[in-house]
Design goal:
The chain has about 300 residues and is an alpha/beta fold. The protein contains ten helices and seven strands. It has helices spanning about 1-30, 50-60, 75-85, 100-115, 140-165, 190-210, 245-260, 270-280, 285-290, 305-309; strands spanning about 40-45, 65-70, 90-95, 120-125, 170-175, 215-225, 265. Helix 4 packs parallel to helix 5. The structure holds nicotinamide-adenine-dinucleotide (NAD). The site of nicotinamide-adenine-dinucleotide has 30 residues, from helix 2 and strand 2. Nicotinamide-adenine-dinucleotide (NAD) binds near residues 46, 49, 100, 126 and 229. GO terms for molecular function: all-trans-retinol dehydrogenase (NAD+) activity; RNA polymerase II-specific DNA-binding transcription factor binding; transcription corepressor activity. Belongs to the short-chain dehydrogenases/reductases (SDR) family.
Amino acid sequence: MAPILGLAQELLVFLGKSILVVVESLVFTFIPVPRKKVAGEIVLITGAGSGLGRLLALKFARLGSVLVLWDINQERNEETRKMVQEAGVAGAYAYTCDCSQREDVYRVASQVKKEVGDVSILINNAGIVTGRKFLDCPDELMEKSLDVNFKAHLWTYKAFLPAMIANDHGHLVCISSSAGLIGVYGLADYCASKFAAFGFAETVFFETFASKQKGIKTTIVCPFFIKTQMFEGCTSRLSYVLPILEPEYAVEKIVDAILKEQLYLYMPRFIYIMVFLKSFLPPKLGMLLAEYVGAFNFMDGFTNSKKKD
Ligand SMILES: NC(=O)c1ccc[n+]([C@@H]2O[C@H](COP(=O)([O-])OP(=O)(O)OC[C@H]3O[C@@H](n4cnc5c(N)ncnc54)[C@H](O)[C@@H]3O)[C@@H](O)[C@H]2O)c1
């Protein structure tokens, strides 16, 4: 009898807590979630030399954060540093770092800790795309995709998470992709790296949550194509539900999700529906839907030759 009472009690506690969480979510559907202040926070952005990384840097500069900018491209990273300086940043430090190299990440990370301090918002944004079908993609390029788009996240977490835990204060941001939720024709290595980045960030979130490290937040971002250099030439057939996103819009949403401490951000909203449908539709119907939305042809116009060669 006693074990049954124990189980019933556990179930009641679970149901009670669940109701509270649902009520809280409903309340925040109608009233705006308070945004956290990030003035003075040390924000590290990888891949800050262009695209989303540069725009994120500008946005955090305007919010009063201290910026640590990492990129493999020294010149473009320095350009970003100058741009954020002109935007009136509290402090901006540019470091050349090849995030695909573990030793480079650790070396530059310890330099940052000495010269700037403990990073409190880590944005793993650096990324590359090969854009070739699996059997056409050379092994070295596939390895590089995994090194930059996924493994770099392991090394940056190892470098900066311990201090966040010690301070009970930190935010881990993973720029994954909708290609980290659903396979995309012609992007096998990219999808593998983005699924891995998603799974890794989600698991560390579970670990910090279960360890009651309440000060450590996570945001995982999964956007569809964005008009940056990375996926230049790619098209979307159903642009009313799956538009190619404007970079400024994407960055606005990403920063807002960080300030709201939102765990998942998929954009556009249709991605939530696609992920939901994928979980139960018969695979043949899923393929029909994929064909209908043009998923087998997204990459047809891909012209990012710099990264292709
Ligand atoms: N553009 C899109 O359509 C899209 C869609 C979904 C997700 N994303 C993701 O968003 C992130 C930013 O993409 P973007 O569109 O701004 O691309 P981008 O090509 O404009 O910028 C990527 C930056 O990463 C840097 N980088 C590349 N390899 C590096 C390395 N080894 N070490 C350090 N820096 C390196 C590049 O120099 C560049 O500045 C990427 O992770 C990308 O996968 C992009």
